[in-house]
Design brief:
Number of helices of chain B: 10
Strand order of the largest sheet of chain A: 1-4
Structural class of chain A: mainly alpha
Helix content of chain B: 10-25%
Order of helices and strands of chain B: HEEEEEHEHEEHHEHEEEEEEHEHEEEEHH
Helix content of chain A: 55-70%
Largest sheet of chain A: 2 strands, antiparallel
Number of domains of chain A: 2
Largest interface: A-B, 32 and 33 residues
Oligomer: heterodimer
Shape of chain A: globular
Shape of chain B: elongated
Strand content of chain A: under 5%
Number of domains of chain B: 1
Structural class of chain B: alpha+beta
Strand content of chain B: 25-35%
Largest sheet of chain B: 9 strands, mixed
Distance between the termini of chain B: 36 Å
Radius of gyration of chain B: 26 Å
């Protein structure tokens, strides 16, 4: 039953990547920083969702014990899975040597889900928000685009695992659209410059790019709900990444693009309406209105 | 684990004693030897000092031939004026090389029955074509080549060119007697398209002879550009096989890393047999080659990352303010508002060793500065066993532990370098076991 929630497979895969990265890719990630990130995300999520639940059902709660029961209610506890995914994403992508920076990034990442909402949906990818916040607000944080290298094996690994998770989640179209669009733009530029094809291949096969496209760009709870909306959204991100990378020379272009284009989700959802994604929807016979709305 | 504890305590001590390093107090081992750039055939050395968008790039000149045949072509992001080009001294590259090279250190075991030292201190060009007389402006315009500026600095005559197409540039270079090899045209095209200019230098023979220079000195250029890159593709044009490049990246913030290639730290802090002391350079070459092959020749290696105001152990004296300025550090007397560090403590050096070739390194190197100030150095440890008279019972235990330790050291060496384990064992002097006679300690 546990595996019917696609978040569980995502947690396992991200955890596996983190383990692989630390043990074979020679990263300087300290284990205590990983613990700090995970615990900060979980604590922030726990407290914030409990507060939201409390505010919603304040009238029904009569005594202290029923109020405290919120902290251990199923809804709140299940929401911790999303927080775990966010924390793993931060561990994989954000680098820092300072506890405070990581805690800040975690807290801001989770808070963005509660602060930036439209019609009960958050539109910033939380891990991405945390990364951008850490990079802009502190001096201590950075992203290493080259940390995965370009070995074939990792390429296949990412593709395979990404595909599995996405097929479960049903949002593979964002990855495909982004990779196709971005790949084409890079290929055109490469040809115009006159480089040989191995240059394009080398640029495109970056493990970090794939990780972003397959695991970050596909968070189904913050991307546009409708298929057309998602295609336009992915194309916009691909285009923006291309511009930021080659005209503004930003090595963190992909993260900035996702951040800047995220508010577009709101617009796209207004134009093309479709039911919002729910983690447990496809696997149970309970009508979606009765399911816990996870954050 | 013991080595880690020792390392930690010496990092702490090293931080406290950051000036006036007295090698006698260096607990991280006594410095023995270093693996500097002299190891490599024609290694290019480049210093990049960068703060924000402002960069000072220094390129070494390893050129061995006749001065009149020397010429250099480097793509640069902006047009340079005379004041932006400076000719330095090669000593600065040797200093940086010595300071950041992987090092061998030694420890001496104390007499196990109760309760040592010595101190000493001790790295080829980007583009070599054949040269030239003065450029002729009339034909330049027809070829789409513009001579943006032209001046002499030190023993060099320098010309800054911008071009609109590679055919024109190639023709211009040939007409002005720069012999460019086959295929240069295709490689020049991407740089032209990216709107890069071409910095072309050749030797001014009168200056060279009259000043009695013996070898060509490094050229430094200062410019401001958001592009943080090093064009290596042009250098691959006429080379066969792998080429070595040492890049010294100086930054006020912290480590500088590559964004389009993976960086791996060279194996470090490993204990190796004593005999390597006389073969340290061979050891390092083999180890580097081995690591390089294991990574499928696709990565760059980090050999040193440290705050330049200290070192532990030091393979060379830390650089003083004058020397840092020679290296291109331009931010020394201007503490920036976000910088917590003052004075000469805000220079961080990253030494990257890239062995590149055409197949595995198709892209020019692109960098980014990070605020990672964690330290790393290539450090290899030799422990000398106590060789004196062992007069107590603990002595034989000590002997046994030495044999075990030497075997581990041999295994480490075999693993790092790929040398045959039997050969290694043959070179190690295993201590003779001299058991203490039973009657020795009766009447004590």
């Amino acid at each position: 039953m546990l595996f019917k929630d696609a978040r569980v497979s995502q947690i396992i895969f991200l955890g596996l990547f983190l383990l692989l990265g630390v043990s074979t890719r020679d990263w300087t990630v300290q284990s205590n920083l990983i613990l700090v990130v995970i615990s900060s995300c979980l604590i922030a999520q726990w407290l914030l969702s409990a507060i939201v639940e409390y505010a919603k059902s304040r009238d029904e709660l009569t005594n202290i014990s029923s109020k405290l029961n919120i902290l251990t209610s199923t809804k709140v506890l299940i929401s911790l899975r999303s927080a775990l995914i966010t924390s793993l994403g931060l561990c994989l992508l954000l680098r820092s040597n300072s506890y405070q920076t990581m805690m800040l990034a975690s807290f801001l990442a989770i808070s963005s889900k509660f602060l930036f909402r439209h019609h009960n949906k958050h539109f910033f990818n939380p891990a991405n928000f945390g990364i951008i916040a850490a990079i802009t607000l502190t001096n201590d944080a950075w992203v290493s685009p080259g940390q995965w290298g370009t070995d074939w094996w990792y390429l296949l690994l990412f593709l395979g695992l990404g595909g599995v998770v996405l097929k479960q989640v049903g949002r593979w179209d964002t990855s495909i659209a982004f990779l196709l669009a971005y790949g084409t733009l890079e290929a055109l530029r490469n040809a115009w410059l006159g480089w040989s094809w191995d240059v394009w291949q080398h640029q495109f096969m970056s493990g970090s790019l794939l990780l972003f496209a397959l695991f970050m760009l596909t968070d189904p709870r913050s991307i546009p709900n409708s298929k057309q909306g998602r295609w336009i959204w992915s194309l916009a991100i691909a285009f923006s990444t291309f511009i930021l990378q080659h005209y503004f020379y930003l090595s963190t272009a992909i993260f900035w693009s996702l951040f800047i284009i995220s508010p577009l989700t709101v617009l796209l959802d207004m134009v093309w309406t479709a039911p919002r994604f729910n983690w447990l929807r496809s696997n149970s016979r309970v009508p979606s209105s009765k399911l816990p709305l996870t954050t | 684990m013991k080595i880690l504890k020792v390392l930690f305590s010496c990092l702490l001590i090293g931080a406290i004693l950051f000036f006036g390093i007295k090698p006698a107090l260096a607990f991280c081992g006594f410095y023995v030897a270093k693996a500097d750039s002299s190891l490599y055939n024609q290694a290019s050395q480049v210093i990049i000092a960068r703060d924000g968008d402002r960069t000072v790039l220094t390129m070494s000149n390893d050129y061995q031939g006749e001065a009149e045949d020397f010429a250099m072509v480097v793509p640069v992001p902006v047009i340079l004026e005379e004041g932006q080009v400076h000719i330095g001294e090669s000593e600065i590259l040797e200093r940086l090389d010595g300071f950041s090279a992987p090092r061998l250190v030694e420890y001496f075991d104390r007499d196990p029955c109760e309760q040592p030292r010595r101190n000493r201190f001790s790295t080829r060009g980007i583009q070599e074509l054949e040269s030239a007389r003065l450029p002729t402006p009339q034909t330049s315009a027809k070829l789409g080549v513009t001579v943006e500026s032209q001046f002499s600095v030190g023993e060099y005559d320098i010309v800054l060119l911008s071009a609109t197409e590679s055919d024109g540039l190639e023709t211009w270079l040939i007409e002005n007697d720069y012999q460019i090899p086959e295929g240069a045209k295709e490689l020049l095209q991407p740089y032209i398209k990216q709107d890069l200019k071409f910095f072309v230098a050749k030797v001014n023979l009168e200056e060279f002879d009259s000043n009695g220079f013996e070898k060509l000195r490094p050229i430094s250029i200062a410019y401001e550009s958001p592009k943080f890159m090093l064009p290596i593709r042009l250098g691959m044009m006429n080379a066969q096989g792998d080429q070595d490049l040492l890049v010294y990246l100086l930054s006020p913030k912290g480590q500088v890393e590559l964004t389009n290639y993976r960086t791996v730290k060279i194996p470090s802090n490993t204990q190796i047999p004593e005999f390597v002391q006389t073969e340290f350079k061979d050891f390092y070459q083999s180890m580097f080659e081995q690591s390089y092959e294991q990574e499928n020749k696709q990565v760059a290696f980090l050999e040193y990352a440290w705050d330049m105001s200290s070192c532990d152990p030091c393979s060379a004296e830390p650089l003083n303010q004058e020397e840092l300025k020679d290296a291109g550090v331009f931010w020394l007397n201007q503490p920036s508002p976000n910088n917590r560090w003052n004075g000469n403590s805000n220079v961080f050096i990253t030494r990257l060793h890239v062995r590149y070739n055409r197949e595995n390194f198709p892209e020019d190197l692109k960098f980014q500065s990070t605020s990672d100030r964690s330290n790393f150095q290539g450090r290899y440890v030799i422990r000398h066993p106590f060789m004196g008279e062992l007069t107590c019972r603990a002595g034989s235990d000590y002997q046994k532990s030495i044999v075990k330790r030497q075997e581990t050291e041999a295994q480490n060496l075999a693993r790092l370098t790929g040398w045959d384990i039997q050969d290694i064992r043959g070179k190690i002097i295993f201590p003779e076991s001299k058991p203490v006679p039973w009657w020795r300690n009766i009447w004590e």
